Amino acid sequence: MSPTAINHEAAVAPLASLKSAASGALHTTFKEPLLSSGSLDRFTHFESTPPIGREYPELQLSELMNSPDRDQFIRDLAIVVSQRGVVFLRAQSGLTVEMQKEFIDLLGKLSGRPETSGLHVHPLIEGKRDVGVNEKNDHDEKISVISSQLSKKLAGGGYGGERYMNAKRGWHSDMTFEHIPSDYAILKMRVTPSSGGDTLWASGYEAFDRISRPYQQFLESLTATHDNPGFVSSSQRLGFAIHPGPRGAPENVGTDLIASHPIIRTNPVTGWKSLYSVLDQVQKINELSKQESDEIMSYLGRLIHENHDLQVRMKWGKDDVAIVCLPLLPFPS
What we know:
This protein is α+β, with helices and mostly antiparallel strands. The chain has helices at residues 61-65, 70-84, 97-110, 148-155, 162-165, 204-209, 213-220, 229-238, 290-305; strands at 15-18, 46-47, 54-56, 86-89, 182-188, 199-202, 223-227, 258-262, 264-266, 273-275, 282-285, 311-314, 321-325.
């Protein structure tokens, strides 16, 4: 994910479910890639760009959740999200916070998530209580609110710092410092800015496909250390504890926020390979020297931020929703 295109005061509440990912192929309860039943074909939709993104301009997620065919709809939606990377839904005013949590939990379960995994808990949840999940300012540890107010507080200098002087550093996949990162997330826009606040996603599938086969094979042999020292320093500076875990999976415990993951991963829902370890939150490629690691990470980063044709951009409206397949793409926060 990239950073938002322009700083804004809007808040979105992302929820994420977790899928075990100790190796290049994510662990799943299904042995083969999933096939769609076609239940969503009746709904008007279009592809946002050729490699990434689909929008259903009329579909209401709340209606799917209340349908007698709910599980079939959601399983097929998990397949679409896994194939297209991100799915956009407009004006979802009927989608409640509790419904969001139920939906994203089902999305993981029905696509083969291990029984030991559940909804992720953000490690900085204790420092994110300034902004609630709704107009009543309620709080829920399974929901991570995103706002420029919170970002400025946690960053200790706001958006004017080094990261936003060189915005390419904002590209990342969420929660890769966890041993079991999230598989899907749902984001809903509560408050829209007068301008800006757009979000960019990039296709990890397409990035992988643009690499020559010998280089793909080389990358498939590598792993990288992921960390987030910024989260640790924020908790120390502001005087709150990092959530010790479990954070959605029994493996996600401790406060060091360091994990190792393959550079290339295979999505079990689709069977497709994707670039995974890139730019922000990646400390080093484990099997290489620092110089070699830096040069390869620079190249992989350029694949993302220099190729606009593998990106998609979301212009948010009030109550708009994005459903994201997290292990696959660098995507915005």
